[in-house]
Structure formats: structure tokens, C-alpha cells
Amino acid sequence: SFNDEGMEVEYKTGNAGTGAYTTAGSETTALVAHNANEYWQCNPVASATGTATIFWDAYNNMGITDIAHLKVAHLDFDWLNEGTTATGTIGSGSVTSNAISSWSPFTLGSISMNSPLPVTFLSFSGKKQRN
User: What's the start-to-end Cα distance of the chain, in Å?
Assistant: First the structure.
């Protein structure tokens, strides 16, 4: 939701970008993970203050073990925890941010490695031993 002149929102697959997990968001508990498989790019038509609601399902958000771990993740140079309390089940639900006025990529975040969200391997290597 938002106020003022409107918002352009585009759903994108892939990782919104890299950044440190910091305590500078509207909630001071740092994230430990974000969904690197999808995000929403949000650009206000003019200045805007409002909230962002992220919905999840079991298709793109495997790894959720407790919805209390879930937060709105906001990439603003670093990954910020924008809050708040999630509702639903581990299979589907939503979480809405606190009031924000800075807009950029948003996705689902987690404050616990017990709910690490999807893991994407960038590379791995192996070595044959015996047979």
C-alpha cells in the first residue's frame, strides 16, 4: 500500500543484489538471509510513504520452518529488516513492513538460519576418492 502519486512495481526472478545484513532497518534485528530467487522492484512515481507486503508460498520459498522468522527484506545498499509480524503458515502467508519512505528491491527475509529461505549454489567442487 502507499499514498501520494502512485508506484511502479515489477516482479523479477533472481537475486536483487548483494549487501551486508545490518541493523539499520525499521527493526534493529539484522536479517541472516533473503530470498535470492525473486524480488519486487518498487519505484514511486513521486515521493511516497507506505508499506510493502510480501506474500510467500512453498514454490519459491522453501526452507521456512517458522513464520516468526520472516520479515520484509529491503535492499538499500545493505539488506535491511523492515519488519513486521508474519501471518499464515509455512506453506503460504504474508508479512507487511513498517512504514517506509525509501523504495528499492524488496523480498522475503529471515532473522534465523532455522528458516534460511532458498539456498542457491554459486559453485562447488569435488574430488574422486577410491571408487
Answer: 58
